[in-house]
Amino acid sequence: MQLRSLLVAGLAVLVPFVASCGGGVDAGSATLRFSAIPDQNSTELQEKYDKIAAYLSDTLGVPVEFVASSDYSASVEAFKNGDVQLAWFGGLTGVRARAAVPGARAIAQGKVDPLFKSYFVANASAGLQPSPGFPMELEGKTFTFGSESSTSGRLMPEYWIRESTGKAPQAFFAGDEMSFSGDHAKTAMLVQEGTFDAGVLNYKVYEDKVANGSIDPAVCIKVWETPPYPDYNWTAHPSLDESFHPGFVDELQAALVGMTDPDLLAAAQREEGIIPATNEEFAPLESLARELDLLR
Hints:
Strand 1, helix 2 and strand 2 form a beta-alpha-beta unit. The chain folds into two domains: 3-113 and 230-291, 3-Layer(aba) Sandwich (D-Maltodextrin-Binding Protein, domain 2); 117-225, 3-Layer(aba) Sandwich (D-Maltodextrin-Binding Protein, domain 2), CATH 3.40.190. It has twelve helices and eleven strands. The protein is α/β, with parallel strands linked by helices. The chain has helices at residues 3-11, 42-60, 72-81, 91-100, 151-165, 169-172, 184-192, 203-211, 240-243, 248-257, 262-267, 283-291; strands at 32-36, 64-66, 86-89, 105-110, 118-123, 143-145, 179-180, 198-202, 220-225, 233-236, 274-276. The protein has a six-stranded mixed sheet with strand order 2-1-3-10-4-11, with helices on both faces. The protein has a five-stranded mixed sheet with strand order 7-6-8-5-9.
């Protein structure tokens, strides 16, 4: 695989955003609808993103509504169909959405997202200890990924498993098929409860759950963290400039990047702040998704 060099090149592309054109969704729409991949508890996400909707509405002067998605694939389909015109995607779902909608733009990301990472975790009973390199002791253990379409819960972990072991996950872990919990929070709980010996998840979810006491790091042990890669992003549909007015996507980008209120940043799950994003930054993920036949 050539991903190491691609990642290095991709991570260096932290440049100002590029413009794009578009069209295609109902030009008479008076409401900006946005969604987000459901990588955590859906009720909590609704509460958080309703705050973002209110902020964007006040800032942009247009009605804004958050539309919940049932799963990762549903968020991509809603974007493809024009049912939502803005989405908080993971790296892989964003790549899929932009590939399906010519002119779609990644416009913003958290300050942490260009250098994101995953945590491999294990139940204490599995007998693993933190390791500076990929923990080969995971071989033969029961293991769960997050969502099938997750960058931090599936795509990048699968890459590092294959790169480090020379084996597909199905051949390295116990069982003949890959297991998927559905989201990062569930992965952490399934490992803590001992349902699986080990799993992999978004590092921020793990750290948040340790901080709020719902995960005991002495029971659900972080045994390895991956090298960094680009991940989450806000992606805008090209129809927005047509539905509202020319330059609206740029205004939307400025509103997201200009979100500085700590409560809003917490709602956006990016307390560190928001920065611009470009499609080019995610080219390494697109290349890897094609290599693993996940760009669908």
